Request: fold
Amino acid sequence: MSDLTLLSLAEARDALKSKKISALELTRAHVEAMEAARPLNCFITETPELALAQATQSDAKIARGEAGPLEGLPLGIKDLYCSKGVRTTAASRILGNFTPTYESTVSGNLLRDGAVTLGKLNLDEFAMGSSNETSAFGPVISPWRRKGDPAAKIVPGGSSGGSSAAVAARLCLGATATDTGGSIRQPAAFTGTVGIKPTYGRCSRWGIVAFASSLDQAGPITRTVRDAAIMLRSMAGHDPRDTTSVDAPVPDYEKSMGASLKGRRIGVPKEYRLDGLSAEILALWDQGVAWLKDAGAEIVEISLPHTKYALPTYYIIAPAEASSNLARYDGVRYGIRETGRDIADMYEKTRAKGFGQEVRRRIMIGTYVLSAGYYDAYYVRAQKVRSLIKQDFDTVFAAGVDAVLTPATPSPAFAQGEQGSTDPVEMYLNDVFTVTVNMAGLPGLSVPSGLAANGLPLGLQLIGRPFDEETLFSLAGAIEQAAPKIDYPQAWWRGA
Amino acid sequence: MSQPAPSKFIKGATGDWEVVIGMEIHAQVTSHAKLFSGASAEYGGAPNDHVSLVDAAMPGMLPVINEECVRQAVRTGLGLEAQINLRSIFDRKNYFYPDLPQGYQISQFKHPIVGEGTVIVDVSPSERITVGIERLHLEQDAGKSLHDLSATESHVDLNRSGVALMEIVSKPDMRSAEEARAYVSKLRTILRYIGSCDGNMEQGSLRADVNVSVRRPGEGLGTRCEIKNVNSIRFIGQAIEVEARRQIGILEDGGKIDQETRLFDPGKGETRSMRSKEEAHDYRYFPDPDLLPLEFDQAFVDALKAQLPELPDAKRARFIAEYGLPPYDAGVLVMERASADFFEQTAKGRDAKLAANWVINELFGRLNKEGLDVAQSPVSAAALGAIIDLISSDVISGKIAKDLFEIVWSEGGDPKDIVESRGLKQVTDTGAIEAAVDAVIAANPDKVEQAKAKPTMLGWFVGQVMKQTGGKANPQAVNDLLKQKLGV
Amino acid sequence: MSVDPAVVRRIAHLSRIAVEDKEVERLNGEINAILTFVETLSSVDVAGVEPIASVLPMQMKKRADVVTDGGIVDDILANAPVREDNYFVVPKVVE
Ligand SMILES: [Mg+2]
Ligand SMILES: [Zn+2]
Reply:
C-alpha cells in the first residue's frame, strides 16, 4: 500500500486484521508524517519510540490472535490527559516538566484496547480558548488554507486544536479531545473532521486535567463518523474513580451506522437563527435539513427559548469552577515555582508567571463571581438559568424530538490574531451554538458538511438525548453520505 | 434562651458580666480510609505515606466518598437527637495554604448532613443544662506544616490531608468555662459511645474552636472572638476564663472588642491575635462540581438508628431506675461505655449500690492514680464481684476487702482462694471475740470508767479489739459485745 | 455591575496572581467587558427556579471503607519542586 496515512481508522483496522499491513508499518508512516508536520505545531510532546514499541507489541498480539478493538492504530492524545511517564502540560508553563505517575482512565482504555500513542497534542492553555492561540507552546496552525490566501495562518479551532489539526493533516488516525463549551465540536468543524462530545458522564474525567468539572467531557476527533463511533466505544465506560461517570453499558456505536432514519424526528431550533448569521451558514443549515429529510427523517421546528443566555451563563460557571480547579497549581507539589519573599509572594509570582493571560483572566473572573456579595447575583443566578436551559431541551425531547440539528459554528475558521485581541467576548462567540449542549449535559456531534466560499470547511451539529449517542452516529452518517466529499489539504507543510 | 444566672456572672470593676460561649468541635471520624480517597486515615505514619494521588491534589484527580464516613455522621446526628438531612451538598471552601493541596477544603456549607439537635450536660451533681446543636457537617482535614525543621522553610506532610472530620457547631448556649468543659466532655462521651470518634485530644482527634463574648446581664450578644484549636478540656476552660477577662478589661476601659481569631497560649496563660489569619477572608464557597448531592432514604437512617448502642443519657436513667443509684453516681458510671459495662458486670446479681461504690471509689480511684483506663484494669469485673460477694456474705470485713482488692490488683488471683489461703476470713466465732474484748477491758480499767460516762469512747474499744484480732473480727459482733460488757 | 482597579487588585490577590500596575488597567477593561456580556442574565425570570445540582438524575456512588491507596511516597513527591526527607518544602509559613 502506498500512503498508509490516507487510510481511515476503520480501514486501517480492517487492513491490520486481514494482515495486509503491519502495525509497525502503519505507525512508522504516522511517525514520519508527525515529524514532517512540525511547522503545524500539533504536538507538544512526540513519543515515537513509545509508539514503535507499542506497534511491535500490537503486531505480536495480532499474530497471536489477541488483538484488541484498536490494536495497532496510531492515535494522538490531547495533552490534557495525564500520560504515565510522559510529560503532561495542559499547554501551560505552570506544569513545567510535570510527568504523571498515572494514566488517565480514558487514555488507559485506549491502551487497553491496543491503541498506539504517537504523542501529546497541543491545545489552548488548560483548554481555555477557541483558536489554540493561548497555548504556552505556541499556536497550532491548521492544515487548511483560505482560497488564494496562503499567507494567512488559519487556526484549527480550540481548545482541541492540536487534535483537530493532527487528524485533518493525517498525522494520526484519530485523537482524543475534550469539550467544555465546544472544544471538540468547534475545532472539528474548523478542520473538516468529525468530533463528538458524548453525554456528560459517558466518559470518565479521572486523570484529565480539570477545567470546569460540571461541563468537561472527553470525546474523539476523527476523519469519519464511523471512526468516531469506534473510538468512543473504547473511550467510554463507567469508572468507580469518577462518581459523575455513569454506570451503564457502552453500546457498540459502530452498529448504529447506516440505521434507517425513517420516522426520526429532527428539531430545528428557531432561536439559533441569530441576527447577522451569514447566508452561507444559513444555507448550510437548510442543506442539512434537506439531507436528513431525504434520508427519511421528519423535520420539526422547535423552540429553545433560553438559548441566548447559554453563553453568558457559561462565562460565569466555567470560570468559577476553573478558578477553584486551578488553585492546586501553586508551586508546592509539582510544576514550576518562582521564589518569593514569603509563601503568599511565592504563590503570586508562580501563578503570574505560570499562567498565560487568558487563564489568568478567567481565574480572576471566576474568583470575582464567587466572591462575597456577588455569589448570588452571578453564580447562583447562572446555575438557575442553567436549569432553564436544560428544561428547554427536556421539553423538546419529551415532545418526541429525537435529535436537534444546528450549525456547529457561526463562521468558518479565521486566521491567527483576527479575533479576540481587543475584546475577549468576540472570541467567546465562537461557542454560541455548542455551549448549550454542555450546559444541559447532552451529547453533541459535529460533522463536516461542506466548504465555505473561502475554501474552509464548515460543520453541522447534531444534539441528542442523554446517552443516545447512537442516534447521533446514524444521523451524522447520513449527512456524511449526502455531503460533498471533503478533500483534506495537501501536505504543503512538508519542506515548509 | 435561659435567664441570666447570677451565680455564673464574672465580677468586673464596674459590675457583673455574663460570658457567652459557643463551640465548633472538629471530631475525626473513625474510619479506615479517608473521606474521599482510599489512603489510610490512621494517625501517624512516615511523612507523606498515608497519601494518595487524590490527597496530593494531582492534576485530574477526583474525590469518591467513603460510605462509612456518611454512616458515622448520621449515627452521630442521631446521638445528638438531631435532624438528619436526607439530601446534603458538598461545597468547596477556597483558600490557599501549603497544607491544603487542592486549594480548597471539601466541606458542607449551605446544606449539611445533620441539622439542629441538643445535648444534655450535667455541669455538677446539682446542675444540668441543655446545649443546642446548630449543625454537624462532614469535611476534609488539612495536612500538616512543620515549622521547626528549618529556620527559613516549612515542611509539608499530607498524611492528614483528606481525613474525615465532623464539624459539630453548638449554639451560644454556655455561660461559664465550667459549662463549656462539661459540654465538651459530654460530647466526647457521646462520640465514644457511638464509636464515631475516638475523642483522643492529644492526637487531635477532637479539637475545639471556642467563640467567646461578654455582655452585661440581660443585654444582647457582644462581639465575639474565636479561639482556634484548643486541644484539651482543661485548656478550653482556661482559655475561656482569660479571654473573658481580657474582653471585660477592654470594655471596662471604654474600648471595644474586635471580632478576630485568637490563639490560646497555655504557657503564658493568655490568648493572642492570629494576625496572619486576619487577612480578609473570602472563602468563595460553591457546590463541588466533582460530587453529586449526597442522598439517602429514611430506611437507611432507621437502620442505623436501630443499631445504635444505648447512649449515656438513656443508660444513666436506666441505672437510676434499675439499680436505684443516686443520679450523680449513675452519671459518673456512664461517662465511658467501658466503665458502665464494667459496673453492670460487677453489679449483676449483687448489691448494686455496693458495687457502684466499689467501682467508683476503689477501682476508678486506683485507675486514675495509675493513669489507666478501665479496659486495662488488673482487677476484672468478675474479681471485683467476687470481693463484693465476700463482703456481702460476711466472710470478710470492708477493711479486709480493701486489702484483698490491693492483693488482687498487684498479684492477681481468685479473691476467694486468697482469703482462704491467707487466713483473711472474718472472725465470727463469739468465743474468740469475747476473749479479745475481755482482754482489752481488763487492760484498760481507766478507759472503762471514762466510757461509762462518755459512750462515744466505745469507738476506741472497737479499734483496740480489731487490732487484737488482726482486723478479722466481725465489727458488728465486737460492737454488740462491748456494749453489753461495758453496759453502755 | 462593574469593577474598578482596586477591585481588580483585590481579586488578583484572592486568586494569588501577582499583577503589575500596567496590567491592572487592561484587566479592568477586559473584566468589565465580560461582566457587561453576562449582564443579560439579570433580565431572566428565575423566580422559583432551583439552581442546577447535576445535569443527570444520578445517585452518587460511594466507596467502601477499605484502605486501597497510599504507600506511594515516591509517586507523591516525584514532581516536587523542592523536597527533603519525604516532605514537600515551602518558604517558611508564619502562623
Ligand atoms: Mg469552622
Ligand atoms: Zn471545619
In short: The first strand of chain B starts at residue 10 and ends at 12.
